[in-house]
Amino acid sequence: MSDQSKPFLYVVVCAAGVADGVGELITAAQEQGWDVGVIATPQGLGFIDTRAVQKRTGRPVRSAWRSPGDPRPFPPADAIAVAPATFNTINKWAAGIADTLAVATLCEAYGSGVRTVVLPCVNPALAAHPAYRQSIERLRGMGVLVGGGAGPFRWEEALELLAARGPGSLTAAQPVAAEGE
Ligand SMILES: Cc1cc2nc3c(=O)[nH]c(=O)nc-3n(C[C@H](O)[C@H](O)[C@H](O)COP(=O)(O)O)c2cc1C
């Protein structure tokens, strides 16, 4: 059972090669007092050990919308870390193309004022695409904290960025629900 007194962190996982290390972020977040739920993109599901993640978080890994009438699997998010974030998901998020639960959750987070950080994992050739540069610029303009850059992928950077942001929300609106409710 989760401890609802703890802040709740959604970790959104995309289909990048480093995704199988997401346990590192989950453990570090839990050690800092977060309760964690993982939302993977449909492609991202194939990149993680879902059983291990479920065991670690004590919750199912979400990837699809729930059926109408089913209870909400996760509490509302206090913060969201998108790690790793792919070229595809970053561009869809910035464009508002909410065709997966993961991207829909991110699109809602802006209007709901939920603190959101993103760790892109995008190779230099893809990152040079003008659409990607514009997407990152748009996300920054939405208040999203963007990590990554040169060097190896650092999971802990997500928590460092969240701590730097502090407990306040982006727009002081309601916390996000994962289903668009
Ligand atoms: C082994 C493998 C590793 C990949 N790594 C990356 C990556 O690091 N970054 C990225 O943007 N796409 C990567 N891709 C491509 C994405 O998986 C692909 O664009 C996918 O459609 C992204 O889906 P998502 O954004 O919904 O998770 C990789 C694909 C494979 C097969």
Question: How would you sum up this structure, described in words?
Answer:
The structure is a single chain. The longest helix is centred in the middle third of the chain and has 12 residues, at 101-112. This protein has 7 helices and 5 strands, in the order βαβαβααβααβα. It is an alpha/beta fold. It has one domain (8-67, 75-164): Rossmann fold, CATH 3.40.50. A 5-stranded parallel sheet has the order 2-1-3-4-5, sandwiched between helices. The structure holds flavin mononucleotide. Flavin mononucleotide binds at residues 14-17, 41, 43-44, 86-89, 100, 121-122, 126. This is Flavoprotein.
Distance between the termini: 24 Å
- Give me the Rg, rounded: 15 Å
Enter the CATH topology name. Rossmann fold
- CATH top-level class: Alpha Beta
Number of helices: 7
Protein name: Flavoprotein
Organism: Streptomyces flavidovirens
Domain Flavoprotein: 11-139
